[in-house]
Design a protein that fits this description.
Elements: H1 7-12, E1 14-16, E2 31-37, H2 56-63, E3 65-68, E4 71-72, H3 78-87, H4 123-129, E5 133-139, E6 159-163, E7 176-179, E8 182-185, H5 199-213, E9 221-226, H6 238-241, H7 263-287, E10 294-300, H8 313-316, H9 331-334, E11 338-341, E12 350-352, E13 356-357, H10 361-369, E14 371-373, H11 383-386, E15 401-405, E16 411-416, E17 419-424, E18 433-438, H12 454-465
């Protein structure tokens, strides 16, 4: 069911088994830094296979922790992925299951997206209620300036700096952003090809400033750094672009995207700017003397997009070996990088090849911080695997991973172990199609083996049935064996 919004529920849900520890001295609970990229492909990092992009800081994060080689985002597009991440609910139950835009204001300022309901039990609210300082920096996409209930400051964050509306975040030289509830004009920026202030750098700078202001720390902190890189348009400071020299042609800017003189070098530079931001945040934590008390999570909101706006996914091999791209539930649309690092606690350069998903991060953080929350959660805690207390194989006994995508005629997908069931054209009772893939033998999802394994299909269909009917009718599907 969708989260309850009653005042009684909100007042009663927050507990912590570390209560009172702060009064006894330094609070031993770990800080959390959650880094979410925007459209970063599974193989766009040097440590996940890129042969052309250098990411030394993220590589260092990987060497200091665990890489999940079969990690998934919670959704295949921006807003629902963020909703699932911050509420711990799969797209079968989440409030927001697709991008739903709000019209711009009469003055042209961006209107935002469908907002989280008031008093939603977010990860920010859970940690804030347990005494954590909480800051959100970058792209929000879960409520605009006209909806106070959906604002980050109303959803568990003490500090917000960045973009409320994800459409505003589609230009990296935006004309303004928001600082808490104040609109801040960016002098020298006019949403052109370039400008004086590269907004992703500003968001990283503000996150670093906020962390630095917390030292010495009286309470642990939670940083949600949701960069809007490397989402199109292709834009980066010239010095970052100049670090890369590829054989390439300019992009003419057709189909509503900005022109770009060096599209390959610019995309690589955008990923490198993520890496630079990660390095700055890691250094700020180290400077505060908090590195051994801080858990870092690094992932992306969905897979890399298809070839558009000058982006060349084949050159970068962003989704190499995977079918599809962003906005689909094929592997390329939802497979993403995922790294967890905690110095002295997570084994160096460790790897887990079990399937995990973005909405696992909420219960994982609760387990690793000792915070309890009465929110209904669909994910599985990865903490015991991260800390070496359980084998990676133990995650194979988890409940199936589930996704939905109302676009493209409707898609649903379920993965359990090596099996993945995809239902396409799911809004049509006539054209809906079920396909079963053995991902161990067929990672490209090219051979439908549903007719060979009817018992597996039946079991995974039951997982598709176990969904909440959305209040938005367009986010529901045609009947399937009497279920919606």
């Amino acid at each position: 069911m969708i989260q309850s919004n009653t005042a009684l529920a909100v007042l009663g849900v927050f507990l912590t088994n570390a209560a009172g520890l702060a009064s006894e001295g330094t609070d031993p609970r770990p800080n959390i830094v959650l880094i979410l990229c925007d459209d970063l492909g599974a193989h766009d990092l040097h440590c996940t296979g890129s042969q052309v992009i250098q990411t030394p800081n993220i590589d260092r994060l990987r060497e200091q922790g665990m890489l999940f080689t079969q990690a998934y985002s919670s959704a295949c597009v921006c807003a629902p992925s963020r909703c699932a991440l911050l509420t711990g609910r799969s797209l079968a139950h989440a409030q927001i299951r697709d991008n739903q835009e709000v019209a711009n204001a009469p003055d042209g300022t961006f209107g935002g997206q469908r907002a989280l309901e008031a008093n939603t039990l977010t990860l920010g609210r859970a940690l804030q209620g347990a005494g954590y300082a909480t800051g959100c920096f970058g792209k929000w996409g879960l409520g605009g300036p006209g909806d106070n209930a959906g604002h980050p400051l109303a959803q568990g964050f003490d500090r917000f700096y960045g973009f409320l509306c994800q459409r505003n975040a589609h230009n990296h030289y935006a004309a303004y952003l928001e600082s808490d509830r104040e609109r801040v004009p960016l002098v020298g920026n006019d949403r052109g090809k370039t400008g004086e202030q590269f907004v992703p750098d500003l968001c990283a700078q503000e996150a670093v400033r906020w962390i630095s202001a917390k030292a010495p720390l009286d309470a642990p902190f939670f940083v949600y750094f949701a960069t809007n890189l490397p989402h199109l348009a292709l834009q980066a400071p010239q010095d970052a672009v100049d670090r890369y020299a590829f054989e390439e042609s300019s992009y003419d800017g057709k189909k509503s995207y900005l022109a770009c003189d060096k599209p390959r070098a610019t995309y690589a530079a955008m990923v490198s700017k993520i890496d630079e931001a990660v390095g700055r945040i890691m250094q700020s934590v180290a400077d505060a003397g908090e590195l051994e008390k801080t858990i870092f999570f690094f992932t992306s909101d969905n897979g890399a997009p298809w070839e558009l706006g000058g982006f060349d996914p084949k050159f970068f091999a962003s989704n190499q070996g995977l079918r599809g791209s962003k906005n689909s539930l094929w592997e390329g649309g939802i497979r993403v990088p995922f790294i967890a690092s905690w110095k002295g606690h997570i084994a160096l350069a460790s790897t887990c090849d079990a399937p995990v998903v973005g909405y696992d991060i909420f219960p994982t953080i609760l387990a690793m911080t000792g915070v309890s929350c009465a929110a209904p959660l669909d994910g599985t805690s990865l903490s015991r695997v991260m800390l070496g207390e359980s084998a990676c194989e133990s995650l194979l006994a988890r409940p199936p991973l589930v996704w939905e995508n109302p676009a493209l005629g409707g898609q649903q997908a379920v993965r359990d172990g090596g099996w993945k069931l995809v239902r396409s054209k799911a809004k049509s009772p006539v054209d809906a199609k079920l396909e079963l893939f053995d991902l161990h033998a067929d990672p490209m999802e090219s051979v439908n083996v549903a007719s060979l394994h009817p018992e597996i299909v039946a079991r995974l269909v039951e997982a598709m049935h176990a969904r909440s009917v959305s209040a938005v009718d367009g986010w529901n599907y045609a009947p399937m064996n009497g279920a919606r």
